[in-house]
Amino acid sequence: MKLDRRAFIRLIPILGVAVAAGSWWFLGQTVEETAKTSQATMTTSVASQATATTSEAFHFPVTGEQSTKVNSNDYRLKIDGDVPKPVEFTLKELYAMSDVQRTLRIVCVEGWAADVPWEGVTLSHLLSQAGASLKSIASAKVEGITGYSTTVRSDEIANPDSMIALKAGGAPLTVEHGYPARLVLPPRLGIDWVKYVARITCTSR
User: pLDDT per residue over 71-127, tens digit each?
Assistant: First the structure.
């Protein structure tokens, strides 16, 4: 069947509408598929970031006082009391001083225990920076910024496992576990492992 010229001209508007409708449908499908692909990529990216963040922290139970946030730029650890030269250290200085890595068990009064790889500064080395010697110090009061404290005996200070921990599992302590610095004091129970350590006050013999 052949169309004469006049009939063909009458079909042009109809064909134009059909082409426009088809183009609109195709464009909509393309946009929708692109959006789905972008969303899937974003979801995968977020999931990967969450996994990476989670894997950076060493997980063990959290008990005790409420989590306390500390500004690392303003943080200072003071050592005073009966020492020849009271001092205070920034977090950066403490990291530079870190001298010990130990996997030590923390035992909680609530019944759980965990073997945790700790890193930090031994108490004896830290106190020596203030001129204190193991022969001259009878005890040291380790206090967190919340006011919670523990008194450490001289024999415990001399213990090479006693430290101010800065890391757990190779990563900086989480806020829940006492960031930026926590007392590690085996074989005492975890209740004496003061979090958010900010001051150590020495008492002479």
Answer: 999 999 999 999 999 999 999 999 999 999 999 999 998 888 999 999 999 999 999
8 A C-beta contact, residue 119 and residue 103 = no
Is the same domain home to 122 and 197?
yes
pTM of the model: 0.70
Among left, alpha and beta (phi > 0; psi -120 to 50; other), residue 177 is alpha
Q: Which two tokens stand for residue 148?
A: 């919670």
d(CA 193, CA 145): 14
What tokens were used for 142?
A: 């380790």
Cα–Cα separations (whole angstroms), residue 149 to 72, 102, 106, 183, 193: 21, 23, 17, 10, 9
The answer to the question of residue 62 being in a domain is no
In this structure, the answer to whether residues 42 and 87 fall within a common structural domain is no
Q: For the segment 8-61, what is each residue's pLDDT rounded down to a tens digit?
A: 445 455 545 444 444 444 444 443 444 344 333 333 322 222 222 233 456 776
Number of domains in the chain: 2
Q: Are residues 51 and 102 in the same domain?
A: no
